[in-house]
Design a protein that fits this description.
Blueprint lengths: L5 E5 L23 E5 L13 H11 L8 H6 L7 H20 L16 E11 L2 E2 L7 E3 L6 E3 H5 L4 H4 L1 E3 L5 E6 L5 E2 L5 E2 L15 E2 L2 E3 L5 E2 L13 E4 L5 E4 L10 E3 L10 E3 L4 H4 L2 E6 L8 E5 L13 E9 L4
Parallel strand pairs: 3-19, 4-7, 16-18
Antiparallel strand pairs: 1-2, 3-20, 5-6, 7-8, 8-15, 9-10, 9-11, 12-13, 12-14, 16-19, 17-18, 17-20
């Protein structure tokens, strides 16, 4: 189960934080407020075509955050002092659920976006993270790989935890590999239903993506795939079609640098823009370069390139409603 991170506003002038701004990165905008992230995500997810790794986990988690008011708990505790502690706990949990649900909500009438041409603050930004995913984390049977010699694990190639989503990976021989052509098919959820990324918020149309729209399905139509050790991941499967011309190639997709490069929607943030993200001030100095793009990076969504997580298929950070400073090229 994923643990959604809690975001707290901090004053960047807080002396307990030590040095607040990076040096040698240009003038830090006035009126800066930062974010502190508490906790970590622990479930596998996506990051590239690209979701973010974290965004799809949030999608699945937030779908269950509506909940119901703890009114019954309140009434039950009216005449029982021993129930007050439990009542307060239930109230706090319910308020937290509502806050999380609001954080993941999408504006029904978002303003029209135009490509940024002047330096300035941009609010309401979702921050996720992605990384080159190791093939050693996957358990699928090796299959022929268009564009590469030899065979590679099916889920490393085509699942939402693999190269098709993250964009880049590292094969069993330690070589960098990237997806060269995404192909003509999209994504399906674990039930085998087509799902598309959101234009805002974190909810995919039919839930979190799980696999490319080709591959295998079981008798119930759900995604399954052959395992390296024999058998199937979710019951015996039958082939439903290829991946629309998806191909792979050796090498990195771009000369990206950990905690320096980000993927953006170039319709909003031009490639080559310098971006200050306050939440990363104490990780990388906070300054990034917009070098990459992705099919699931839409609108006010920034994907931070980072090293692989310590745990298998970790999602990294997920930050909602962030405020970032954008300096487009030539501004």
């Amino acid at each position: 189960m994923a643990r959604l991170r809690r975001v707290e506003e901090l004053d960047p002038r807080d002396p307990a934080r030590g040095a607040t701004f990076p040096t040698g990165a240009g003038t830090v905008p006035a009126g800066l407020t930062s974010q502190r992230v508490i906790g970590r995500a622990s479930k596998a997810s996506a990051g590239r075509e690209r979701t973010l790794a974290a965004a799809t986990v949030a999608c699945a988690l937030l779908a269950g955050c509506g909940g119901s008011s703890p009114a019954g708990t309140q009434r039950a505790g009216l005449h029982d002092p021993s129930a007050l502690s439990g009542q307060r706990t239930a109230q706090a949990a319910w308020r937290h659920k509502q806050a999380v649900a609001r954080a993941g909500a999408c504006n029904a009438h978002p303003p029209a976006e135009r490509q940024i041409s002047r330096r300035g603050w941009l609010g309401g930004v979702i921050i996720t993270e992605y990384y080159p995913v190791p093939e050693s984390w996957s358990d699928g049977a090796p299959v022929s790989t268009p564009g590469l010699a030899g065979r590679h694990r099916a889920d490393w190639l085509y699942s939402a935890k693999g190269v098709s989503m993250e964009g880049d990976g590292v094969d069993l021989a330690g070589r960098p590999v990237h997806i060269q052509n995404l192909g003509a098919v999209g994504w399906v959820n674990a039930a085998g239903k087509h799902t598309v990324p959101p234009h805002c918020g974190v909810h995919w149309s039919q839930g979190a993506p799980y696999w490319r729209a080709g591959g295998w399905r079981n008798r119930a139509g759900q995604v399954t795939y052959p395992l390296a050790g024999g058998g199937w991941s979710n019951g015996a499967g039958h082939w439903v079609g290829d991946y629309g011309g998806a191909t792979f190639a050796l090498g990195a997709s771009l000369p990206l640098r950990y905690y320096h490069s980000v993927a953006v929607d170039p319709k909003l943030i031009p490639r080559g823009s310098r971006i200050f993200i306050p939440a990363y001030r104490n990780i990388s100095g906070g300054w990034f370069l917009a070098q990459d793009t992705g099919g699931a990076i839409i609108g006010r969504h920034i994907d931070v390139y980072r090293p692989p997580t310590a745990e298998r298929f970790g999602t990294g950070r997920l930050l909602l409603h962030q405020r970032v400073y954008v300096i487009p090229p030539g501004a």
